[in-house]
Design brief:
The protein has 1 helix and 5 strands; from the N terminus they run βββββα. By secondary structure, it is α+β, with helices and mostly antiparallel strands. A 5-stranded antiparallel β-sheet has the order 3-2-1-4-5, covered by helices on one side. Strand 1 and strand 2 form a beta hairpin. The radius of gyration is 16 Å and the shape is elongated.
Length: about 90
């Protein structure tokens, strides 16, 4: 499955930007978004910055990804989701 990941721009050096994604840092191509600046939240796909997004949207995406990862871990472990309906 391929998906775009949100990250935060830490540094910009010419056509490249250092982006932090879930605690990892990587250099991404910024040619598609040349106006990117330090502090921006961006969407990354295949090490290419494809969009600049707002912080609120990035936080929602981080939360959704966390929830998806938890659901996938439960499913792969065979542990059903036991929710209290009270």
């Amino acid at each position: 499955m391929c998906m775009s990941l949100p990250g935060k721009v830490l540094r910009v050096n010419g056509p490249m930007a250092e982006v932090e994604i879930e605690g990892r840092r990587l250099w991404c191509n910024a040619l598609a978004q040349p106006e990117v600046t330090v502090g921006d939240y961006v969407l990354i796909h295949a090490n290419l910055i494809v969009a600049i997004i707002g912080e609120e949207e990035a936080m929602r995406m981080f939360e959704t990804a966390r929830e998806l990862n938890e659901a996938m871990a439960r499913e792969s472990s065979g542990d059903p989701d036991h929710r209290d309906n009270a």
